[in-house]
Specification:
alpha/beta, 15% strand, Aspartate Aminotransferase, domain 1, 17 strands, Aspartate Aminotransferase, domain 2, seven-stranded mixed beta sheet, 13 helices, globular
């Protein structure tokens, strides 16, 4: 069968997206206009957060999050090794230290037990916060992490970049959407093209704290506010109160984001249909990410584990299936190796990395394409 190239992920842009962008290009504001707040309000409503602040990418959102929570040079945070480097880098941007706790070998998420072990190995106050990651779209049980964080007086940033539309059900029976900041202090999302909501680049920070909302909103715009412009000043007046950044999202991207957001319920449903077909095909043959009871995976990725990962990777490429590896453990990247994590027991993460490969997962992946992927994966594994 002749098949066109199949990537591991891709954006879906239709006429409604194009029309939304064109309408902004014809309007008065390309940036700092009304579409940004419209996108923020729609996104906050979607995930169930009180506030949402649009930023130019999720890395910026993580950076602003740690600043707003007061992380300082020499202080320490805990995150997962199985994530994109930005989840850890945000702490390094402010001179803080990153410590890694191992993952659960079944869910691939930051292990609650390993995090507790790390916390209990040091005096209280040694760590300042935790950055759990909703890896591949699977929700971290933030209720459990909140209890742990409260015990050790820690803040939480939920890295929900993979997971808009995912949720878990808490002990009270309430559905908790990823990044809704009900249990975490802050949630962070990504709008990179391979993510659920594609804005080209972009991100969103969510919180239920008015104080954090105001702080992050000011920091994303150079630390500038116009709050006092009506107090014995003209309309031109502004104050730079802190050293902030230019981390704004444009109206062009926001218009695209508004339309993309409206499609996400259907998109996540389709991703779960694709995941179900993979699971049925691989059942009792190939390991894949475990789905805890009462959780709904948003499925940014569909990851499987195989013995000869490098062989499968190359075999799929010869068949124009461009699977990907997510991720090289952060502590194994040269920058972090120089810092040194030789004493850390991150064996689950390292074993996972030796075996993991992400198969094509996106809403426009059709059944014929998925059947072709399944056929080739099974043929390699069973050979």
């Amino acid at each position: 069968m002749k098949m066109k190239p199949i990537p591991y992920g891709r954006q879906y842009i239709d006429d409604s997206d194009i029309e939304a962008v064109v309408s902004v290009l014809k309007a008065d504001y390309l940036t700092q206009g009304p579409k940004i707040s419209e996108f923020e309000e729609a996104f906050a409503k979607y995930v169930g957060a009180r506030y949402a602040i649009a930023v130019n990418n999720a890395t910026a959102g993580l950076h602003l999050g740690v600043i707003a929570l007061g992380l300082k040079k020499g202080e320490r945070i805990i995150t997962s090794p199985i994530t994109f480097a930005a989840s850890a880098n945000c702490a390094r941007y402010v001179g803080a230290e990153v410590w890694f706790a191992d993952i659960d070998p079944n869910t691939y998420l930051l292990s609650l037990e390993k995090t507790r072990e790390l916390l209990e190995s040091k005096p209280k106050g040694f760590f300042k916060g935790i950055i759990p990651v909703d890896f591949a779209g699977l929700p971290v049980n933030m209720e459990e992490f909140r209890k742990l964080a409260d015990e050790f007086n820690l803040w939480i940033i939920e890295d929900a970049c993979h997971a808009p539309g995912g949720y878990f059900t808490d002990s009270s029976g309430n559905k908790q959407m990823c990044g809704n900041a009900h249990y975490a202090d802050i949630g962070v999302f990504s709008f990179h093209p391979v993510k659920h909501i594609a804005c080209g680049e972009g991100g969103m920070v969510t919180t239920n704290s008015e104080k954090l909302f105001k702080k992050i909103a000011m920091l994303r715009t150079h630390g500038i506010t116009k709050e006092n412009m009506a107090q014995n000043h003209g309309g031109w007046y502004y104050e730079m109160r802190e050293l902030g950044f230019n981390y704004r999202l444009t109206d062009i991207q926001s218009a695209l984001g508004i339309v993309q957001l409206k499609k996400n319920v259907a998109g996540v449903k389709k991703r779960n249909e694709i995941a179900s077909r993979y699971k049925e095909a691989f059942k009792n043959k190939i390991n894949y990410q475990f789905l805890p009871k009462n959780s709904y995976n948003a499925h940014h990725l569909f990851v499987v584990e195989v013995e000869n990962r490098a062989g499968l990777y190359e075999y799929l490429r010869t068949n124009k299936i461009y699977a990907q590896i997510h991720y090289i453990p952060v502590h194994k990247l040269p920058y972090y190796e120089k810092i040194g994590y030789s004493e850390a027991d991150l064996s689950n993460s390292e074993k996972y990395y030796d075996r993991c490969i992400s198969l094509p997962m996106y809403p426009t992946l059709n059944q014929e394409e998925q059947d072709f992927v399944i056929e080739k994966v099974c043929a390699f594994v069973e050979s």
